[in-house]
Amino acid sequence: MFCVRTPSASVGSASHLSKGGSRGVGTRRLRSGFGFDCRWRVLAFFVATLVATNARGDQVVTGGVNYPDAKIVNLDQGKLQFRAADGRLHSAWIGEVELMIVDRSGVFEDFNQAERFLFENQPQKAIARYERTLRLSQEYWPDVIAARLAAAHDRVGQLDRAVQYWIRLLSGRWSGMAAAAHLMPRNIPAKHDGRVALTVDLLTNEIRKDIDEDRRAMLELLRFEILRRVGDARSNELARGVAELSIAAPARSEGVYAIVLAAMQTAFIRTPSASAGSWPVAGAPGSDQAALDRAMRDCPERSLPGFLILKGRLLLRTAKSREDVIHAAWCFMRVVIHLPDDPLVPEALVAAAGALRRLERADQAASLLNECLAHARIGDETRKQAEAMLAEVRRNPSAKP
């Protein structure tokens, strides 16, 4: 018996467990994640299995919505395309598709069993079945299965194997850079081990091949991120090159730009100082600024706060006039004003307060610090910085930091 992911409310209602293919009436909703009462999980699995058994066609679960009696028709640059029972065409990133049951016999019997195992968070059992399917599948299915294998190996901590299939995705006809950008391995160990060494060698060998620059950039991004996450000093040497990479349009995902931001923070900033807004800059400000402006232009909106804060810090470090300081402060305040619920807002408030202190506006700095301390998403480290700066402002309001 398997247990499936179920929603936290209204699990047992008749409308909740009915067939459908939209978020309105007649939709059976599933929630990704675990930790719910197993009785409801067993019930939901029973219903899902019953629906799949009685349906004529494929079954797709994505975004918590079940589409029985569907028809999977294609994989287009990493997006699974399928036609729902009502005839409407849908698409979803392959990494966000929770379950696919294909109404075909033969090789797809292994695939369907692998899907059930992956859906049930049993990736190790899924891997062998996916690999058997991969050897026999045709058309776009090898790219679909490579995506599943990359995800399954990532879940079980087999980084080298996950990256092996990720590289295959990167060059896939139906997957490509868009799919690779959304399926970058996440389960990177905290310390260097044998799998990390194999993975870095694998990526380095791929980088040396005669490939186009856009794909090479993706390989360099992932290699830097792995070395950075395991604390390998080579990441410091690679950071500037990664920070200056131009990211192709299909690959401009939040995950990719999180790595770009980390590379810029490493390359452009050596060590943050105790007071907000005064990080020393390494390298030529002109080249740093150009790379940063390009990233801000191209990145997804949800990635923008980190780059705005970094730009403010760089501008504040090199500021020579009050106008320069105001310009830096405005970068921080753009985060606060336009994205008030972003987790980086408390950090932006502290940085903006530091800029206002330089402008000798103690009252406004204190106001921002109090706003920071009251923010629902403030972290422990930011709280300590805000409390220390607020104490200093109150003790000596006329002094510059």
Kindly describe this structure.
- This protein has 401 residues and is an alpha+beta fold.
- 55% of the residues lie in helices and 8% in strands.
- The chain has 16 helices and five strands.
- A five-stranded antiparallel β-sheet has the order 4-3-2-1-5.
- The longest helix has 17 residues, at 38-54.
Query: What is the makeup of the main sheet?
Result: 5 strands, antiparallel
**Number of extended strands:** 5
* Helix content estimate: 55-70%
Distance between the termini: 63 Å
Question: Which strand-content bin applies to the residues?
Answer: 5-15%
Order of strands side by side in the largest beta sheet?
A: 4-3-2-1-5
Structural class: alpha+beta
- Counting H and I runs of at least 4 residues, what is the number of helices? 16
Mean pLDDT, as a whole number? Answer: 85
Global morphology: elongated
N to C succession of SSEs: HEEEEEHHHHHHHHHHHHHHH
Unreliably modeled segments: 1-55, 271-286
Radius of gyration: 25 Å
Q: What's a concise summary of this model?
A:
With 401 residues, this protein is α+β, with helices and mostly antiparallel strands. Helices cover 55% and strands 8% of the residues.
Descriptive terms for the model:
five-stranded antiparallel beta sheet; 401 residues; alpha+beta; 16 helices
